[in-house]
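## Example record

The block below lists the input lines for one assembly entry, exactly as stored, with component labels intact.
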Amino acid sequence: MSAAPLLEVRGISKRFPGVIALDNVALEISEGEVVALVGENGAGKSTLMKILGGVYQPDGGEILVGGQPAKIHNVTDAMRLGIAFIHQELNVLGNLDVAANVFLGREPVMTPFKLIDRKKIHADTEPYLKRLGLNVSSSTRVDQLSIAQQQMVEIAKALSLNARLIIMDEPTSSLTLSETERLLELVRELSKQGVSVIYISHRLGEIQSCADRVIVLRDGKNAGALAKEEIFHDRLVSMMVGREIKNFYTQSTAAKTPGYFKVRNARSIRFPDQAVSFDAARGEILGFAGLVGAGRSELAKAIVGLDPSGSSDLNLGEEKISIRHPRDAIERGIYLVPENRRTEGLVVQMSVRENVTLPSLKNFTRLGWIQRKRERKTVEEQIVSLRIKTPTTEAAVMNLSGGNQQKIVLGKWLAMNPKVMILDEPTRGIDVGAKAEIYRLMRELAERNTVILMISSDMEEILHVSDRVAVMHEGEISGILDRADCTEENIMQLAVGKKISAAKAPFSS
Amino acid sequence: MKKEFGIFLLLAVLCAVTAAINPKFISAVNLTNIANLIGLFGIFSIGLGLVIITGGIDLSVGSMFALSGVLLSLALTSWHWPWPVAAAAAILVPMLLGWCHGWLISRLKIQPFIITLCGLLVYRGLARFIAQDNTMGFGSAEGFETLRDITKGKLFGLPMPFVILLVIAAIMWFVLHRSVFGRYLLAVGRNEEATRFSGINTRRVIATSYVIAGLLTGISGILLAFYTNSISPSNHGNFYELYGIAAAVLGGCSLRGGEGSIIGILIGTALLQVLQNLVNLLGIPSSLNFAVMGAVVFIGVLADHLVQLRSAQRAVRI
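Predicted structure tokens for the full assembly:
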């Protein structure tokens, strides 16, 4: 009987008013196995996970744990069955130390006053940290750790609960390349130790590197499964989308004008002593790779004037420009699509119309009054040309999907006249179909002579979308790679600050 | 619009009930009196509403009334300034203070609650010090009959403060709901960061809202000084900021910012004044005045909250 899989989900269905979220879905995972669960947004991944976590009750089907039927009514039930969750948004308390987080709610106490046994809680935590290779003290405050380390704390917590199955939902979305590498290594390590992992991700490269098997969901149904040796990019994508996506990555055909956009001596608040200089060509997509914290987003903010203590000398074509406020950049056609869509890119409670015209509102006024008709017309044009799926121009942005939200951020700037577009993590949390569209849009913009700077922590994206790649390390550009030299290895070398011969200088003086 | 409709309904019901129990409610004298008070309170409530829409608050309004009232009285009766100069000063002082608040809040990022709480204490103290704690008034002094007539007169049978309120409300409706500045105001209140990323000078938008609040407080202050005709510096305008906040919140402004309308603030103000009047007319002990008002604000906000919760639940999918 030991052959029974660790977890088996049979014929699970779940209906919501008007929607069948899951229809007869099956999933099986053995001890120590790593199963990747993929599918577009709305395919039913999160509903399935919420059923395993006891948030929802299924309308039909059964869940077997170790061959025994199991009912999961809440998170405590899931925990008792050895199922733990690592969510995209981390659930750590920054104001407490590592040990307190790991044993939250299960603190060892000393009689008679039920005071926390501080010695024991720290002694109990250390072995888990060691097992995960997390090199921090158990008495460190969690808010002093990096996001990757905080995630480790959550994994330590899961292990301390004797979890036999850890479900990771987009665990690498806020991690750097090297942190992602370490997490993937850890996943393999956990699997060797007999812990099973369900790995949910949009990043197909990661899945290829860690999964034993892939289960694909589409429209709430099983769309198929692939064994490790069958996992190929195109096959996965067509399974997820249900059709072939042609030209997922489009190649550049544009004539480039090298040295069109010159950045000299850009300094950001984070690395005030590092002066960054580089050239970007008109018509190219220049990727920016590097570890999170390498200063890429800070550089972008310094260029567009969002960093009050930052500075830079810019040249656009023949014109010298100085930027002190974001308005200066916007007037010159230098726009930023920021990293955090919902907090920096959009006012999510406002309508599509109000968001799209926010930076260009003055163009729709007469004597200070807004002319709504003209405003609406422009917004409708953007909705059509970007294929934004929204019921009306008046729908609140927060009710739209991530991909559509990102298109609205793009629409804000495309309604004006972009000369330089800086996109910071343009496809984070966006499903495959929308990703392809965003890549296509970026390429179209480049073809229309816009300079595109794309900051990304997604290796696939960096490798396949960029015409050249600038790699940053500790606030400076450690080298620029031409398309032919763009390999994962070269990028990683530069990202950790090593010199390699393929790297070019970031600018010619 | 839905939000305003709900509160308008409440106002209509209260008016109908009061009128049914005590017909004096719809007498010309009473209605004129209520209109006068709605005018006085509505003007500064609109200013407070704008500040609340940016996600801020202004607790210093009542103390500003005391300070500007004392200064106005001194300027007219002791210093014998020409009335237009005195009136301008009584408006400029709160505007300047509002600008200071706005500057400190938007530049130094100090919380509006703290800044304006300091203002509440400081201006009250200054008013009492300048007046040496004596009750100030306008007595039988002469030379500013025009100003008195403007504030206490009537136009088309409507009391002046109410007429001024209508004019200001019309202007502010355009500013909030149809102008670029108004759009920025709502955007800043919702998400200052994203607004800044769109190249908008969010600091100036926020600071300007406090200056406008100061301007409207100044105008209200003059009307109020002539309405009470005596300014006792220790309690002139006491708690008035709370009336303004209550009116704005009743009218649909969210203290989290980004939400609110001029119509809503007007209806909220009217509701509070009708409530006061109702307490008097229905013979409810006047000591219960605040309790009644508090209870109605509470019920209004609670009802709105429950309605929102329900519609949010209905919207939940997958």
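Chain B touches chain A at residues 174, 178-181, 183-184, 186-187, 190-191, 193-201, 258, 315, 317-318 (CB under 8 Å). The radius of gyration of chain B is 20 Å.
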